[in-house]
Amino acid sequence: MGRLVEYRNHRNPLDKSPIEPGFISLGGLDHNDSDMTYVGWISEIFLTETYVPDGIVFLDSASYIARSLQLKESMPSAFIFLDSADQPWGYDADGYPLKMSDDSCAAVAIETYNHYVSTYTQMEAEGTLR
Q1: E strand or H helix at 34, and its extent?
Q2: pLDDT computed for residue 112 by the predictor
Q3: What local confidence, expressed as pLDDT, does residue 66 receive?
Q4: CA distances from 21 to 84, 121, 125 (A)
Q5: pLDDT digits (tens, 9 = 90+) for 19-78
Q6: Neighbours of 51 (CB within 10 A)
Q7: pTM of the full structure
Q8: What is the reported pLDDT for 94?
Q9: What does the pLDDT average to over 94-121?
Q10: Burial of 9 from C-beta contacts in 10 A (0-12 / 13-18 / 19+)
């Protein structure tokens, strides 16, 4: 089974633009502006048959929740309470949209983590994700 990871893009040697590392099967999820990291999936075949840098951060549910709580604090648009019309429920004294509590954020994070793992594991088993 593959693994959920936190990674940074690599630099394209031709034009210096950022590119997704070749060992990422599906990526670009949950971008963190403060450290330019993303969440992605590395399929089992890449874990066993290609080079994956030693510094890659493998995410279990606890580390994914911790990452989400950090995103909640560092990114203004992360984990905002939205109404049925996808509008913020309200604003704080500084004019920022109201954010979820840590407990609500953790609940959303575990639901998202479980969704990613089950979806990508199934896609990998079906051969639709390599």
Answers
A1: none
A2: 96
A3: 96
A4: 37, 20, 22
A5: 999 999 999 999 998 899 999 999 999 999 988 998 899 999 999 999 999 999 888 778
A6: 9
A7: 0.85
A8: 85
A9: 93
A10: middle
Distance CA 115, CA 98 (A): 25
| Rounded-to-integer distance, Cα 44 and Cα 52, Å | 11
Dist. CA 26–CA 3, nearest whole Å: 11
Q: What's the CA gap between 97 and 86, in Å, rounded?
A: 12
Do 13 and 29 contact (CB within 8 A), yes or no?
Answer: no
Q: Are strands 3-8 and 57-58 parallel, antiparallel or unpaired?
A: antiparallel
Distance separating alpha carbons of residues 125 and 96, to the nearest angstrom: 43
CA dihedral sign of residues 43, 48, 51, 53: positive
CA 70 to chain CA mean position, Å: 12
Helix (H, G, I), strand (E, B) or coil at 70: helix
Strands, E assignment, 9-96: 10-11, 18-19, 26-32, 37-42, 57-58
